[in-house]
Amino acid sequence: MKIFTSWISVIIRKSSTWGYLFQRHISSCVYPRVYWTKVDCIGLQNNHFKINNLDSKLSFVKVVGHRICPFTTMTGSSDILSIDKDSKHNSKTDMRSTQTNLRYCIPGTGTYRNNHNASLVLTDGLEGILGKTAPTHDDASDLGRGADLRKRSAVMTSGQTVGGRRHWTSRSFAVDINMTSTIKSTVLGLVLVMCFSNVGLAAAAQTVAATNTTTTLPPPCDSNIYCYGELLKTVQLARLHEDSKYFVDMTLKFSPARVQENFGKLMEDTSDDPTRKQVAQFVDDNFDEPGTEFEPWTPEDWQENPAFLSNISDPIYRAWAEDLHEIWKDLGRKISIAVKEEPDRFSQLYVDNPVVVPGGRFRECYYWDSYWTIDGLLLSGMTTTVKGMLENFIKMVEEYGMVPNGGRVYYTRRSQPPYMIPMIKLYVDHTQDMQFISDNIGHMERELNFWIKNRTTEVTYKGKTYEVAQYNVQVDEPRPESYREDYKVAQSVPENDRTQLYVEYKSGAESGWDYSSRWFVDEANANQGSLKDLAVTSIAPVDLNSLLCYNAKIISDYYWELGDSKKAKRYEAVHEDKKKTLTELFWDERDGVWYDINITNMRKRRFFYLSNIHPLWSGSYNKSNGEEVMAKVINYLKKQKVLDYIGGVPTSTQNTGQQWDFPNAWAPLQHLVVMALRENRDLHEEADAISLQLAEKWIQSNWQGYEDVKAMFEKYNVEIIGAPGGGGEYDVQVGFGWTNGVALRFLNDFGDRLKSPEQEQERAAEATTTGGSLSLHASKLSSANYLIPVVAAAANFLAR
Ligand SMILES: OC[C@H]1O[C@H](O[C@H]2O[C@H](CO)[C@@H](O)[C@H](O)[C@H]2O)[C@H](O)[C@@H](O)[C@@H]1O
């Protein structure tokens, strides 16, 4: 065995600015070949290295991370090796470590092809391998051959088209290689240890400012029809459909290559300037309407007369609950086997088990919506459907490393609020199916760790450092499903700012609150502005941090049940750490509530958003102060006067025209406030009464809307009983998964005390003699303007 010395320096460049220069000299590492590379994780999400054409039998790859390097395992096949994020090999990985130099020495397992050029690509790991790469610079050509190389360098240019394929890198970079000798033999495990001990890494300590420079980021997915490219742009800007989402939900009639070829012809024939009619014809010729991706399906576990109906004493509400229970059948979808067989022709992702969708334009399953949908399905006794949906999510974690925003390919590079673990808890609480936990606890950990590794950043406050989670999607291009809308706003900002705007758009979509003044940051650090002021990545949202805290607690509890005390303690520590952060950073003693934090100046965003009370719901506060916390939160809600609206609690007090603002009220947020108060009712004398009152308002409004148009809305207006919400970038939708789920939950939990308006009227008539008043009784809106578009939407829904 020979000893060789290799010397590689990797220069990571951030667009026009050289971010830093790193050079590493390895004095004596006793194994065949080591590739050293330095990764700075500050400002990067989901770093991922892919090494093509590496001499993998004879090589190790060493990744030296500045802070949190979210990858550790190396997998390989043929001439492509990639480093995956989840380590089985590297127990030294501590995702929360703030150590300057994390060292990973990873054996490769692929085969060596020394007639190929090698290339090293830094990509966004979460998204997996972002297109194949090929050498882009002659100087890289010797990398991997084990030849004597001196001061070779190669600069990969992001987004280049190589060999007919486009590839993306998170950063441009250069590789300098200087190997003084090579060897032929292979030594693995032992050498690994020697590697770690032999390498001095002090010089690697690099501090890199997390500058916000323009970088080349990947598109929403790799499909040049559904996610980026001229075809998508041409069709979307032609405005063939009122809703941008329609086009990206259509199915290709032919293979993507053939459709691209046809598009090429169209452009050629029209000198790159087709008329709207010609584009429409092209779409007609090459795409089928949305819907061919599904097969007819009725949930097998749907039964008449589910048990929960008997908990509802008001006969009018009970009859309505039966209707709601029926609606599950309309919202069920089974993905056609054609999607499995020819995935490239569909934007729909294939999953084995049927799903329950929100409804309307939301034809596919959504991540966080499913929490409330599943809660309702469980009340409806549909445990098989629920288990299937959970298995789909687990599969997605396996495939994408996380759960995508929704079941379409254009959603796969962003997620939504992480409710998979709480959903599993709902299911297990209901069924006692601990086998599901022992089968899937690893995937639950993986989901939580995705957020910890890829959506967590370090902040300093009053001399202490904290880890806070954020929505942060480092993906370029307009959202395909809202292409026109995003593109238009982007034209109003300088070209250099557009990528960042697209990042903010997607990060907002990941938050589930798309969009809201919650994400506007103006010059005065307030929440005024418009969509071009989106600054989601500058904010640490309290609900996300609270949710992750809860996730860690659930996992810890399950590990105790499974008898793995080591893991149980580990996640208990994560939970405690997050709880402490919520208390020390997010809690505001003066106002008695938690706030989002602007991490660019570490100031609290002292604005009312219903998400502010999330830690009360998730139990992420010090239980020893429970009564005090509860009293303060109730006081805060009263002071904000948000308990006074007739139709529920508003999302915010800002009327911006955005859908996650006033006057809209959303089912998941009503659930949040009502259940936070109900579950903690022992902590405060008023908690039970307020939760009942809020549940009553919400149910009355939902019921009234249903009476008017025989449909459930996606969101409601807090000022008018029964009226749908509005604003945002698409018309209000009917269906509706989470609304039905929350209505069933309230009808079940408060069913013995809720009275429909008709019943109330009777009660009122009786009460007049005693001077009773009906604060919640609303006059019915028979001729309200809102009914016109809504009736049309409802008619469409019913006609399905
Ligand atoms: O098409 C625009 C956006 O639509 C979705 O967001 C809204 O509907 C979802 C499904 O009910 C819901 O989860 C989300 O909270 C709503 O704001 C979609 O999730 C977005 O990614 C999409 O851009």
UniProtKB/TrEMBL annotation:
Pfam family, one: Trehalase
BP GO annotations: trehalose catabolic process
Gene3D superfamilies named in the record: 1.50.10.10
Stated name of the protein: Trehalase
Record-level Gene Ontology MF annotations: alpha,alpha-trehalase activity
Residues that span the membrane, as ranges: none
InterPro entries: 6-hairpin_glycosidase_sf (IPR008928), 6hp_glycosidase-like_sf (IPR012341), Glyco_hydro_37 (IPR001661), Glyco_hydro_37_CS (IPR018232)
Keyword field: Glycosidase, Hydrolase
SUPFAM superfamilies, A to Z: Six-hairpin glycosidases
Protein source organism: Hirondellea gigas
EC number(s) from the headed UniProt entry: 3.2.1.28
UniProt catalytic activity: alpha,alpha-trehalose + H2O = alpha-D-glucose + beta-D-glucose
UniProt family annotation: Belongs to the glycosyl hydrolase 37 family.
